[in-house]
Here is the input.
Amino acid sequence: MTTRRFSEEYPNYDENENDVEAYPPVDPPIAIPPASQMPASQPAAPRNNRSSAHMPRTLTQVMNDANERVVRGDLVDYVPMPTGFDPLDGFIGGGLRKTELVLLGGAQGIGKTIATLQIARNIAMRPEQYAFYLSYEHTETHLMHRLLCMESVNPPDIDLSRGIKLRDLYQIIVAQRAKEFMGRDGGAGSLQQILRENPKTAPALARMARYADRLILVKASPAVTTLRAIKEMTARLCDATGGNVTVFVDYLQKIAVHPERPRDENDKVTMIVEGLKDIALSLDVPVWSIVAADRDGLKSKRIHLFHLRGSSALDYESDIAIIMNNKYQILSKDHVTFNPYTARQYRDWVVFTVEKNRAGRSMQDMEFQLHGQHFSFDPKGQKVQQQLIDDKVIET
Here is the structure.
């Protein structure tokens, strides 16, 4: 099968131009603030010259450019950004790195969006880092509500006794507005005032305020939010933040590819994954994308990288591929230590398997406890100790 690079899909694309008249706008359009209005703690300047991103350079030029960045104290090429999930960061070399494409796969409801949004939040918690989260599944308001529930348990210092659920959050807002409408208790009128004055939501709102200016959310449209639009928005954010942006996509198969007409879904996925990899390389940013599993994967006992929906380009183009499975479902029933009664405690645990890792070891299993009602993982995970299916049991 012949594959096409993203740069080949748009041969006339100029990195320095903002002319997108030939492509439909993002719906709704996102207004990226100018560099002077971004609340960055450092001067907003492009980290590299993107106009020469695809131009040939001598090794001497490459070395001189790298030398200048180190002299300026720009060490982002050498210092990864931790995801905040241990021991995941240890297995992938310390965290996310610029120019890398990370794929996260698994079945529906396993917690892919929860993990991705939590990692985006962890990145944005760093004073000079920005997270750009594109969701084809949820509105920005719904993601905000999820973050409030997550912050109520305050990961990594998980305290479930203070946690609020989505239903609780809605009841607090509606009840307080009802009081205001009825003229009782001088009820609060605005959402922020309601959240600030309620003892259950006030701590979560205060925690969320620490990174609210550095987490950029977009309700993407599967009809019009194209690779071209994603690349342009990311480029503008790079210009405004000095290149300190990590891109999160939820999820890959819903990215629009028109005006191109892919032959089939494999062709479409090839175009998308190559386009995301091109964004990571040409804009010098990490890209993290959720990928859905195919029908065979959903029917299998344990989902693997080859079960992700689309073409083999997912394997070829990604730098890191992580697959999520419910621990209870993939515990080996043949192992001598398996106990069906004690195994039930693992229903709320999710196994993250690094199935591809260009810079380190692959096929590493680690587990994290999911607190689904609070849209949060306990990031203090551990390496899986029990036998899982697909593993070899050596009899002695």
